[in-house]
Amino acid sequence: MQEPFRDPSVPIPDRIDDLVRRLSLEEKVGLLHQYQRPVERLGLGAFRTGTEALHGLAWLGPATVFPQAVGLASTWDPDLVRRVGEATGDEVLAFHHKDPSGAGRNVWAPVVNPLRDPRWGRNEEGYSEDPWLTGVMAAAYAGGLRGSAPGVLKTAPTLKHFLAYNNETDRCTTSSNLPPRVLHEYELPAFRPAIEQGAAVAVMPSYNLVNGRPAHLSPLIRRVLRAWAPDDLLVVSDAYAPGNLTALQGYHDTLPEAYAHAIKAGLDSFTQDDDRSEATLGHLRQALARGLLGEEDVDGAVRHVLSIRFRLGEFEAATPYDDVNGNVVNCPEHQALAREAARRSLVLLRNDGLLPLDGVTKIAVIGQLGDALMEDWYSGTLPYAVTARQGLAERCETVFCEAVDRVTLSSESGPVAADPAGGPLSVSGAEPGTFDLFDWGGGAYALRAVATGRFVSVDGMTLVNDQPGPNGWEVRQTFRMEERPRGTLALRHISTGCYVGAGEDGVLRLVDDADQAVWLAMEVVRSGTEQAARLAAEADVAVVVVGDHPLVNGRETEDRMTLALAPGQDAVVRAARKANPRTVMVITSGYPLTWTDDELPAVLWSAHGGQEYGHALADVLFGDADPEGRLTQTWYRSEQELPDLLDYDIIASDATYLYFRGVPLHPFGHGLSYTTFDYADLRVRVDGDVVRAEVTVTNTGGRPGVEVVQFYTHQRRSRVKQPLRRLRGFEKVRLAPGESRTVTLALPVADLAFWDVTRDRFVVESAPHRLMVGRSATDLRLSARFEVEGETVPPRSGRLRADAHDEYDAITFVDETKEDGDAVRSDAEGAWILFRQVDLDGVTSCVATAGSAEGGVITIRRDDPLYGQALATFPVPRTARYAYHAISAPLAEADGVHDLYVVFENDGVTLARLDFGGGD
């Protein structure tokens, strides 16, 4: 007789129940690691979570490589992004059918962290600084990955990384300060659509802490994420993050305690120690033995694990995806899709009429990226590479140079030479070797030995020349140049921090002591800028391709400190444009950049565009296609316009296009066409619970073109600080010359809500709003006013949670207890939090729930933190962390509604809440 869990006529929840009942406790525990143990007596095979598929299948060999995620989003085309997800899912299946143990069907994509700060090392992995647009693109890509067959998953997409994760600097130990409004209005909305629509069926927490608590222990996993999900939601840890709970983060004393807490918080699968699961399973067994976990806790996690396996069709006789095979990998259809995605992601930032190119017979292709395609950490292996040079060479005559300086290096002992067999570098050679010097920005340089065409790297501690370029998780091919006396320099290896020294045998090796570094004289034997100028002058047009190396200029584990284009590349751009005014700068990067030449006639940007990049670039440069891409991030004029990298409060810091008050280099939503568009007849009305708008868009130019019509709103009166503009919808339209189209928007009034900290819920206020429509967040062509009938937020009274304040200064958000709740802690004398509009009628006393390792004083002042009337003072005694005292104090008479400042007279005081009460 067939077991119920194998009977397809039985509902999946009942099948899971049957299977869980059949498993022993030990067998259940074995399912809680990334490498799930088989249960042979029941016919359960091994199962592994975690196949990388961010913009194509990664790490498993040649597969179709699509543009980076930020490039896919720049298409502003969810259907295209969905099709890329479908193609990627097919290739995952093909690899899985060939090697089930090597390619699992739980894919770790997409990344949905809003791109709050462009300096984030993983900027290229996300979609947009706007959470709504991020959610749209994430749902599209995840929907493609999961497939369209009813009742069965093609793959099981996993959203990364929950929560408030935009820094690599000390990422495992930093805590992201997240006020309630930023949490509910900015961070959570990016995750919601893909989960709520069932497009994503799993989530991965992030390495960082949020308000003092490790993200892997967040109560929001159960309270929010699982409340959104229409079915079981699998939660998998990030790699080695569980071990951080006791090690780097020190949040728990022992791993059994930490792992028990993680399971109770909602974690289902431990990604720890690669395929060596025994240590993790041992800690879980100890947690059970010590009563830290119950079998019911394990059962809950096992249900989530098994639910994914059932929905992937593991226990079915057949699924619609069984016949997918290796023929789909890099098939012609996927190659065409890669070209389409790359072409439609290109953003025209500037154009004085030079583009599209016409009557061109000779192009100078210049730059470090002119004849190279880069793989990022989450790229697949390129099955082939169409570079900018190759793509343009198919159209007309091209000449090419990388425009890098060719140099010699010499010390007092002699010139530096490279072993022609790729071995060690030494200073004992009689003939100097020559090296090409690549400037990747941020002070990072790479050297390529001309004799071998291979890059200088470090093997052990010895400098060798045997690599094709910067590569690997630990990049060992980049150096910094530090000035030394008499015009010499010392090379410092970036990965290790060691210096380059010369041994008695003359071989260059790394040394720890800067005083042991060899002083090197660098002589330029061929100037990259002069070479660029010469080639540019000889051509009809110069196309200078510049940008970042995805493994060098910021990446996972490394943020960038500057937005500036590498100085060496910037100089090449200036030299080429000076030699030939008909110069196009093509930027290829995973993040916004700035440059110094303000006279460039044309500038194009794309993310690293995958295998078909060169064809796509040629299509746009020659006008075969209108540039369709639009920026999904603000391009600032300098990193000095950005708040601190660790400042996650975009509202208080005026960050992102939502709140930024400056004039950006290029705004969110920006992107030019080869034609022009006119906007007319904007009409807006409130129809019940929907705001409806329509506008007429006309192609007023002489070419067919593509326009991304963008709708924004602004609430003009509010109890709280509102965004200057917020994207509410968009439509991509293709118009022939003279053609018009009516574009419509249907916006639920409920979407105009903000998070009301006074009542812990979203609220729509009665207020006037302005609807704006145009080409970008600042190029808004028309606007119209509309009124919304909603609520008026009443004054506060009674209990006030400390984290639910309105404004603050010198405050850190911390965990109230290890399991749940947020509190605030003062960082300096005079720190304060503000509660607006507190009703004090009849209030005669207040209780502060607070604590401090050193003791302290809290004062409540009316209307001003320095000079306002002191209404109550609370002496806070010394307490252990997470131990609070309820401190009562009389309240001076202050009838009416007032703004209250809670002032911390010294640092290190933690406040959980205030309770205002009446008289006897």
If you had to describe this structure to a student in words, what would you say it looks like?
The chain has 17 helices and 48 strands. By secondary structure, it is an alpha+beta fold. The chain folds into 5 domains: 4-326, TIM Barrel, CATH 3.20.20.300; 346-402 and 537-641, Rossmann fold, CATH 3.40.50; 413-518, Trefoil (Acidic Fibroblast Growth Factor, subunit A) (Trefoil), CATH 2.80.10.50; 675-785, Immunoglobulin-like (Sandwich); 799-918, Galactose-binding domain-like (Jelly Rolls). The strands form 12 sheets. Strands 13, 14, 17, 18, 19, 20 and 25 form a 7-stranded antiparallel sheet that branches. A 6-stranded mixed sheet has the order 1-2-3-4-6-9. The mean pLDDT is 97.
Please provide a brief summary of the model:
This protein is 20% helix and 29% strand.
Key attributes of the depicted protein:
single chain; 920 residues; alpha+beta; TIM Barrel; Rossmann fold; Trefoil (Acidic Fibroblast Growth Factor, subunit A); 5 domains; seven-stranded antiparallel β-sheet; 17 helices; globular
